Amino acid sequence: MERLKVKVQPSFWLFVVVATVFRQGYFAAMYSFAVLLHETAHYIAANKLFYRTTEIRLDLFGAVLYGDFQDVNGADRIKIALAGPIANFCLCLLCLSLWWLFPDSYYYTEVFFTANLTMACVNLLPCYPLDGGRVLTGLFEKRLGLRALAVTKWCTVGFSLATFGIFVASLFTPTKLFALGLFAVGLFSGAFANGRQSYARTALINREHFFKKGMEKKTLVFDKKNTLSDVAKRMQGNFLYCLEVVDKDMRTLAVFDIAELEELVLTVPLSTRLGELIQRDGSGRSIVAFVDKAVHSKQHADGCPAQRVPLDK
Length: 313
Fold this sequence. Notes:
Elements: E1 6-8, H1 10-21, H2 25-48, E2 53-59, E3 62-67, H3 74-101, H4 106-123, H5 131-144, H6 148-170, H7 178-190, H8 199-205, E4 216-223, H9 228-233, E5 239-246, E6 252-256, H10 258-267, E7 278-280, E8 286-288, H11 293-296
Parallel strand pairs: 1-2, 4-5
Antiparallel strand pairs: 2-3, 5-6, 7-8
Helix pairs in contact: 1-2, 2-3, 2-4, 3-4, 3-5, 5-6, 6-7
C-alpha cells in the first residue's frame, strides 16, 4: 500500500481560526477527524484494488482524496465509493456502543456521532461527485457504458437546481436556508468537474527520474478476456512491466515487451479486451494487431524480448 499523504490547504486553517473564535473548536476538531477517516477509508479501498492514490487534501469544505481514477470500472467504483460512508456508519456504531458501556461518554462523543452520521447520509445522495453519485455511475455503467457518468452528472444538475429552488422559496419564509443554497451551488459546480488522467498514462510518461536509481521489472499475466484497463490498474510508476496474455488453459497466446505494452496503454482505448489485440493468420500463429511496427524493432537492454508464441489450432 502506498504511503498516505495529507496536505492541509490554507482555507482549512481559516476554518479552524473562525471556529475557535466562535468557540466551536471542539466541533471543528471532531468534524475534521470524521472527514479524514472518511477519506482514509476511500484510500484503503482504492489501494486494495490497485488504484494509485496521491494525497488527501483538507480544505475549508472538508477533504478530498486525489488519485487517478478515470479508468475505474463499475464494480470497483462502487466499492471505493461505499468505503467512506460505511466507515462513518461504523464509527456511529462505535459511539453507540460507547454510550451503552459508558453513558458519560455521550457528552464527549455526541458531536463526533453527528458529524459521521451527517457525512454518511449526505455523501450517499445520488449526486456527482458525492459517493452516492459514484455508486449510481457504477450501476449505470452496466447498461450505458461510457455515457454513465454524463447521465449521473445531468441527474446531479437536476437535483441541484431543485435544491436551489427550495432555497429561493425559503427566502420568502421566516426560515432562510442559506446553507442549503450553498450546498446546491456546490453540487452544481461539482457536476462539471473533470476527472484526472488514468494512473497508467501519468506514470508511464513521467517516470524518468526512477531510472537514476534503477527499476524493477515485473511480468503481468492476464486472460484474453481481460481489458487493457485491468492491466493499467496493476501498473505502478516505479516498475517496468511486460504482459503475457493466456487462454483459459493458461497457454501463452502472446507476450508484449515493455515498449509494446506502454504503446498499447497510451494509444489503444483501455476498454479494449486483450483478445482483440491478437488475431490469427493463415498458419495459426498469434500476431499482434494494434502495436506499431516501429515499436517491435526497438531493443531494450533491460526489457523482455519481443515474442510471438505459436498457437496450435
